[in-house]
Amino acid sequence: MGHRFLPDLSADEIAARQLQGLKWTVEHAFAGSPHYQRTFREVGLRPGDVTSLDDLSRLPFTSVEDLREGYPLPLLSVPEEQVVRIHASSGTTGKRKVLAYTQNDVNTWMDMMARCYELAGCTPLDRVQICVGYGLWTAGVGFQLGCERLGAMALPVGPGMLDIQVQILTDLGATTLCSTASMALLMAEEVEKRGLSSRLKLKRGIFGAEPHTPKMRERFEALLGLEDSFDIVGMTELYGPGTGLECPAHDGIHYWADCYILEVLDPETLRPVAPGEIGEMVVTTLSKEAAPLIRYRTRDLTRLIEGECACGVRLPRHDKILGRSDDMVIVRGVNIYPGQVAEVLGRFPELSSEYQIVLTRVDGKDYMAVTVERAEGATGGGDEALAKAVGQVMHKSLLVSAQIRIVDHGELPRTFAKSRRVLDERQ
Ligand code: ADP
Ligand code: K
Ligand code: ZN
């Protein structure tokens, strides 16, 4: 296929690299990290015991609690002189997750990001507007690294600053926009408001960091005049953004199985789910030096997609990230993911993509209210009937009643980062 960064590997070749990487990782982590020495001893395993990929299932899990316990430099497996930088995640609860990188780690990450740009169709003639945070977060730096590796022109604006964003978009003729889905929507609405769409040269968007609905995506694709857009996945623990990219055939996300092993496990039993079923992503890195991950429980939910892909890329695929197990809320004993609410709202063309869930408790009973915007241009008439219809579909698919409130388009907060969908006021 003539890719510079994307490898064309058969399943056997991938398995061979995975076995080699797994053996290396286990030796390396055991030699360098007191944490891994302890967890290996707990399950009675020595690195030499790993001789086939099947042995992966015998290895101990690593969890987000392990990262917090090891704060500030969890899982560190190299001497400090080899660490060239750290990054941290936003860390919504408790201590931040801080992860260390060696130069080789940075280089691996850079190549993974270059693959993403390449798969999205970028070339050295593209101008890439990077509208995500730089600094401690991995996002800005990751997009920047890969862009430079590919040889495209980076326009490193960062998040927010809509005036500067639209100025750079139009004056520099950005062809590629990298942001969260929320930020893409915000920019799209700004461009529309200022009547600038005819001055844009955008061809594609690469957006990620949060789940989004097809509706949200259709809207910013249309307003920004994008020919195509791609969901990008990643997390701080696993280098940062760029661990996989939505395939050009839009049938799942190709992930870099020669850089990490992905297991999809039942979060209760920790056994593999049946092929194609949804489960928790559990990752094992194959060459990560500073903070190797062995069976790290990401808490993200997805499923593997079997079979050959129409786009011709032979690297395996997983589905888009369907949510985080931590996002799950329990309302009157029923497990609910925000994505399920979004899915119901998506069935109503009269509604926009933006919604917010508020949970309250009165007299020991849970109540769920969903505020949703009207689609742009939709008038306010018939709200009651619409709210009732939405409530009925919601009850049917979630088995919980929700009070539906319909507000004007643009009334819910827009954000530069990840949208906050659930306000839990029950504590
Ligand atoms: P945090 O959000 O925990 O501070 P990160 O900034 O590292 O940490 O974000 C990584 C997380 O963001 C992933 O574990 C996943 O839950 C979510 N995420 C990243 N990319 C996507 C995507 N394309 N779609 C849905 N969720 C995503
Ligand atoms: K260039
Ligand atoms: Zn594909």
From TrEMBL:
Monomer. Belongs to the phenylacetyl-CoA ligase family. Pathway: Aromatic compound metabolism; phenylacetate degradation. It holds the Pfam family AMP-binding. Catalyzes the activation of phenylacetic acid (PA) to phenylacetyl-CoA (PA-CoA). It catalyses: 2-phenylacetate + ATP + CoA = phenylacetyl-CoA + AMP + diphosphate. Residues 76-284 form the AMP-dependent synthetase/ligase domain. Residues 333-426 form the AMP-dependent ligase C-terminal domain. GO terms for biological process: phenylacetate catabolic process. It comes from Alkalidesulfovibrio alkalitolerans DSM 16529. Its EC number is 6.2.1.30. This is Phenylacetate-coenzyme A ligase. GO terms for molecular function: nucleotide binding; phenylacetate-CoA ligase activity. Keywords: Ligase, Nucleotide-binding. The keyword Electron transport does not apply. It is an enzyme of class 6 (ligase). The lineage of its organism: Bacteria, Pseudomonadati, Thermodesulfobacteriota, Desulfovibrionia, Desulfovibrionales.
